[in-house]
Design a protein that fits this description.
The complex is a heterodimer of chains A (252) and B (238). By secondary structure, chain A is mainly beta. Chain A has two domains: 2-85, SH3 type barrels; 100-251, Beta Barrel (Porin). Chain A is built from three helices and 15 strands. Chain A has helices at residues 2-19, 78-81, 99-103; strands at 23-27, 31-35, 44-49, 53-60, 63-67, 73-77, 84-85, 107-116, 127-137, 142-152, 156-168, 176-191, 201-215, 220-232, 239-251. An eight-stranded antiparallel beta barrel of chain A has the order 8-9-10-11-12-13-14-15. A five-stranded antiparallel β-sheet of chain A has the order 6-5-4-1-7. A two-stranded antiparallel sheet of chain A has the order 2-3. In chain A, a hairpin with a 4-residue loop joins strand 9 (127-137) and strand 10. Chain B has 238 residues and is an alpha+beta fold. Chain B has four helices and nine strands, in the order H-H-H-E-E-E-E-H-E-E-E-E-E. Chain B is elongated. The two termini of chain B are 22 Å apart. The chains are: A mainly beta (252), B alpha+beta (238). Chains A and B meet through helix 1, strand 1, strand 4, strand 5 and strand 9 of A and helix 1, strand 1, strand 5, strand 6 and strand 7 of B.
Chain lengths: 252, 238
């Protein structure tokens, strides 16, 4: 019977340790402030004095939900949490992704808006285009992007899809980093339904372009680019289209 | 409370297996004691203490681990479904439903992707003229997607009762996307405002009012149409 009880005790302790992964840090500043919500405007309802341990629960943007030693639950800013100590006595390492992380990023996702088929200086004659892209960086300089775009105007709407879009970035460490692209894909042109029953057509295209990217803050980047398309139509002449776009992305 | 219950239930299950295994163990223990018969009688009152000293499972300071930023759960994404009404210009008001994904970048800014679906009714011209059909059933299907940037303009708290407080935010949102309607893909600008109530750590309710703008020529003139949408959504943080 005693062995059974002891087994029970063991199970309780081992189960509790295995299940709940707890993270404790110790307050090193004179105090840290607990807010009622994850934002600078939420009122401070409690302060935790120096030397006390706080348990970190989870993070929401730049705020951490914590529990104090006496069970108060609230939100502490990342800035204040960086002033706490790990059990070993070292500062807790909390930092946002910066320039360096941006340069060595692996994945990049984003959305751009622009004009498709417009000449420089006369943006009205093009189609509004929205594009989504996902890029994977093989090296700091070379990446490939998958792009899906939709453009629409008063005469027709177009859907573009590209699996191969090589991007070369010669100076990734520059604040505004230029890049060159070379790609191919398919473009589907769909005449407006009000113009009568003309058939949709799908053609292949190749394009080249140049642009620039800039790290904004944290995981964010700004992106602008110009592209020139050659559409291999079934007619006698190939179609040439220019595209301007501006957008933002984030990286991981 | 729930965790304690789980611990208790799991322990109860494991206990039964644990006890059965300890029932086997004495044979091993007795073989040990038989090899050292001089100790067996004297040490019998405290067999448990020996186990405590040798068993590595109990370590009082095991929870004071080094904290790495990556160890801590982040809850910056929110996924949810919404339902409401969409007023399609000239085509009446109809139910709309869809899904949203939010990515909270900072406490102020978030990115939102939405997809939604509705179905247009008939125009008054179609009803009055009798027999005229502007769109086929297929063309009346209204589907859209958009990517928007939201700004938490007025974050705050709602005091539901004396002891219940929920965090809230009034936000502005604007974005762009595409609408498939009347047989065409239409470039669409979306903007509006919303109000979200975070019920607890992982659930939020949002009320949204949006205007979807696109050019449409189906009704005889090429015009920019305003399509107002009011929805209520339930979102899950992860």
């Amino acid at each position: 019977m005693r062995k059974c009880l002891f087994t029970l005790f063991l199970l309780f302790s081992s189960y509790a340790v295995a299940e709940v992964e707890e993270h404790f840090v110790r307050v090193a500043d004179p105090y840290i402030e607990m807010h009622t919500g994850p934002g600078r405007g939420y009122p401070i309802f409690y302060v935790i004095p120096r030397g006390e341990w706080v348990q970190l629960l989870y993070r929401k943007t730049d705020w951490f939900q914590v529990t104090s030693e006496d069970g108060k639950k609230g939100w502490v800013s990342a800035g204040q949490l960086a002033m706490t100590l790990n059990p070993s006595g070292k500062r807790v390492d909390i930092k946002d992704p910066d320039e360096k992380d941006f340069i060595v990023r692996n994945w990049e996702y984003g959305v751009t808006l622009g004009r498709f088929g417009a000449k420089l200086g006369n943006f009205d004659d093009g189609l509004a285009i929205i594009s989504f892209y996902a890029g994977y960086h093989f090296t700091e300089n070379i990446s490939n992007e998958i792009i899906f775009s939709q453009a629409s105007g008063s005469v027709s709407s177009k859907t573009l899809f590209s699996l191969l879009n090589i991007v070369h970035e010669p100076f990734p460490e520059w604040k505004v980093s230029p890049f060159f692209t070379l790609g191919t894909g398919w473009i589907q042109t769909k005449p407006k339904s009000t113009l009568g029953a003309t058939r949709d057509r799908t053609d292949q295209y190749a394009n080249f372009g140049l642009g620039a990217r800039m790290h904004l803050t944290k995981r964010f980047l700004l992106r602008a680019e110009y592209k020139e398309y050659v559409v291999f139509t079934s007619r006698d002449e190939n179609e040439e289209i220019t595209e301007w776009k501006l957008g933002f992305g984030f990286f991981f | 409370m729930e965790i304690r219950l789980r611990i208790f239930l799991l322990s109860a299950v494991l206990l039964s297996t644990g006890c059965s295994s300890t029932a086997v163990k004495p044979s091993a223990g007795s073989s040990d004691s038989s090899s050292t018969p001089s100790q067996s009688v004297g040490s019998e009152p405290n067999p448990d203490k020996e186990i405590i000293q040798t068993d590595p499972v109990i370590q009082p300071d095991v929870k004071r681990r080094e904290v790495q930023e990556s160890d801590i759960n982040t809850e910056n994404f929110e996924i949810g479904a919404f339902f409401g009404f969409l007023s399609i210009e000239d085509f009446g008001t109809n139910p709309v439903y869809g899904f949203r994904l939010n990515y909270h970048v900072t406490e102020d800014l978030f990115l939102q992707g939405s997809i939604g679906q509705s179905e247009a009714g008939t125009t008054s011209f179609e009803r009055l003229s009798g027999g005229v059909v502007l769109l086929s059933d297929d063309e009346r299907q209204y589907t859209y997607y958009n990517i928007s940037l939201g700004y938490n303009l007025l974050p705050g708290e709602a005091f539901i009762t004396q002891n219940t407080t929920y965090n809230t935010a009034l936000y502005l949102i604007a974005g762009a996307g595409s609408t498939e309607f009347a047989g065409d893909d239409l470039f669409t600008i979306t903007w509006g405002a919303g109000y979200s109530i975070t019920a607890n750590g992982w659930l939020s309710i949002s009320l949204d009012f949006r205007d979807h703008l696109f050019d449409l020529a189906v009704t005889g003139e090429d015009k920019t149409t305003h399509n107002f949408e009011a929805t209520i959504g339930l979102n899950y943080y992860f």
